[in-house]
Amino acid sequence: MQAYGIASHRHTPEIEQELSALAGRPVRVSFTPHLLPLNRGLFTTASVPLAVDAATPDLLAAYRDFYADEPFVRVHAEGERPTTRGVVGSNYCDLTVVADRRTGRAVCVSAIDNLGKGGSANGVQNLNVMFGWNERTGLSAPPMYP
After folding, report:
1. Given the DSSP bridges, would you call strands 105-112 and 30-35 parallel, antiparallel or unpaired?
2. Cα–Cα distance between 136 and 25 in angstroms, integer?
3. Which residues of 77-107 are buried (b: 16+ CB within 10 A; e: fewer)?
4. Residue 68: CB atoms within 10 Å
5. Using an 8 Å Cβ cutoff, are 29 and 14 in contact?
6. Domain segments of the chain: what residues?
7. pLDDT by residue (tens digit) across 74-107?
């Protein structure tokens, strides 16, 4: 297992741009993806400073609210963690967030299938949206473990 793109990942500016737009102020992110000896899958840990003190249930509630209309995003319950095994062969992004009150940061963890959500299945989802089709068309198969 190895971390890559430490303090320099190419998607960090995009993540900061979108979070800043949502927050209405500049947001800095520490983003470190991890490579594992897997056939498929990408596991990510990112942390952001909290603007106000918040507990894990508060952050999870905000995630659930934000992603409520996203059919391929599954927010895990408190204490549960995403796994790459849980998303292999799918278009799902499984995620959770934990408040680190000691450091005043939110630690965000996610898992995707890099060939599904990170590639081909995401393309099919975008095609569906572009043509006004049901977003789930062709993507409703449950995740599989090879």
Report:
1. unpaired
2. 33
3. eeeeebebebbbbbbbbbbbbbbeeeeebbb
4. 9
5. no
6. 2-130
7. 999 999 999 988 998 888 999 999 999 999 999 9
Question: Per DSSP, which regions of the chain are E strands?
Answer: 2-3, 30-35, 42-49, 73-75, 93-100, 105-112
The pLDDT tens digits of the residues spanning 22-70 come to 889 998 888 888 877 877 888 888 898 998 999 999 999 999 999 999 9
- Chain CA centroid to CA 109, Å: 7
- Report how far residue 8's alpha carbon sits from residue 117's, in angstroms, rounded to the nearest whole number: 22
Domain 2-130 superfamily per CATH: Dihydrodipicolinate Reductase; domain 2 (3.30.360.10)
Joined tokens for residue 70:
């996203």
**Residue whose entry in the numeric block shows the structure tokens 């999870």:** 60
pTM above 0.70, yes or no: yes
Tokens of 116: 């599904």
- Residue 78 token pair: 């408190």
